[in-house]
Each structure stands twice: as C-alpha cells, then as structure tokens.
Design a protein that fits this description.
Helix content: 25-40%
Number of strands: 7
Largest sheet: 5 strands, mixed
Shape: rod-shaped
Structural class: alpha/beta
Strand content: 5-15%
Order of helices and strands: EEHHEHEEHEEH
Distance between the termini: 178 Å
Number of helices: 5
Length: about 240
C-alpha cells in the first residue's frame, strides 16, 4: 500500500502582506444581533416596545367617575339655562315678585282697645230703621230713652247689610259704641270719619230685640267687628254704609 502525500496547495502571499490577516480564529461564532458595532433590535423587542398601553377605562371605577362627571355637568348646564330663562321672564314681566307697595296694610282695622262700660246717660245715639219694618226705629228709640240714653235722629234708611245691626261711630265715640253693642247682641262695629262722640244704630233685617236690662254685660271688653274684618279680606264683600 502506497501512502501518497498530497501536497498542500500553495497560495502565493505577497511579500509585504501581514500574515495575521488571513489567520482564522477557531471556535468563535459571529453574534447576529451586532452589526458593524451596533445592536440590532429584534422583532419581539419591537412588538413589546410598541404594544398598546392600557387606557383609563381599564382602571376600576372609571365608568362610575365618568357617569358622575356627566351628571354634574348636566346639572350645571340646567342651572345656567334656568337662570337665563328666569332672568328673561323677570325682565319681560312674565314673573312678578310681590312688593310691599303692592299690598299695603288696611287703612281701617277693628279697634283693639279695651273699653269700660260707660253710663247710659252719657251716650248720644241716632237710630235708623234699615229692616223695612214700620215703626221699628221709633220703638227701639223709645226703649233706649227708657234706659237713660240721649236719642237724637230717628229715621228710616237703606243698606245692603243683612246682619242684626250696625253700630257706627268716630274714634272718639268707640267707648259709647261698645256700650250700645252690649245692649244689642250680635251687632257689627264700623268706624267713620266723624269727630264727635255720637253713635249711629242701624237696625237691619236680623234685628229682633234689645238685651234685657238685667242681662246686659257691663264688664270691660272690646268692640266686635267681624264684618269689618271680612271687608278687609275681600273688598267685594264691603257692606254699604247707610244713606240717611
């Protein structure tokens, strides 16, 4: 058997060439992530970098907060709109606010003073018949004279008042009017502008008789004027004062 040595191929090397450049380093592999000294970013790294970040809706309670903010905003808008509409309505007279000048206090009220029972002989009274019954004024006037009253005019008159009797006086005759009311039950007091202390007794359709002398209450008290209070509440119910 002939061992035949194959001669290695001879490569011509330039005389000035560095033999280290053609020397291969055994056992070292090239890193694919390094190119020309720079690191190459891989596909998985790119996908991880540009992956969608979670938005605010992914947080717990996000929907509740958005709903609350929406409700608050709607309420604020409603308040602003209501204010604008209200201002327009006030400026155009659609809405009117009451004022003190629009509802003045009644000029005439029922007196609240407490009066003593005056003696009958110190009272001057005029008697008018508005009940339409003949002789009524004269008959009552005679009874009052018998009780010591000073009776002045006795006559007929007309009125829309339908109660028992009207007792009318000025402010200076209120104590005398209180006395007359104690002698005739169920009367209504009205004040006029007279300056003397005289009293007008106007007998209406509801009158029946004087209170018996022994039953007259002579303790102190106030005037009674329920019809006057009714007149203040509703001017349509104002009773017409008699015309002598």
């Amino acid at each position: 058997m002939v061992n035949e040595t194959i001669p290695e191929e001879q490569v011509a090397v330039p005389e000035n060439a560095d033999p280290r450049k053609n020397r291969k380093r055994p056992g070292r592999q090239k890193d694919p992530t390094i190119l020309h000294g720079h690191r190459v970013v891989t596909g998985p790294e790119l996908r991880a970098t540009f992956a969608d970040t979670p938005g605010p809706e992914s947080h717990a309670g996000w929907f509740s907060r958005r709903l609350l903010h929406g409700i608050v905003l709607a309420l604020l808008v409603g308040v602003v709109v209501a204010g604008l509409v209200g201002a327009w309505a006030v400026m155009n007279g659609v809405i009117r606010f009451p004022s003190a000048a629009a509802s003045p206090a009644p000029a005439v009220v029922c007196p609240t003073a407490v009066f003593d029972y005056m003696p009958n002989n110190k009272i001057s009274v005029n008697v008018y018949n508005a009940a339409g019954r003949a002789g009524l004024a004269k008959g009552v006037a005679d009874q009052l004279k018998a009780r010591g009253y000073k009776v002045g005019t006795v006559d007929n008159t007309t009125t829309s008042y339908t109660g028992t009797a009207m007792v009318v006086s000025g402010s200076s005759g209120q104590a005398a009017a209180f006395n007359i009311q104690r002698n005739i039950a169920g009367t209504d007091y009205f004040q006029d502008q007279r300056t003397d202390a005289s009293v007008d007794l106007i007998l209406a359709s509801g009158f029946s008789a004087l209170v018996p002398p022994e039953l007259v209450d002579n303790t102190p008290g106030k005037l009674s004027c329920p019809r006057l209070e009714q007149r203040i509440a509703d001017n349509a119910k104002l009773p017409l004062l008699p015309t002598p």
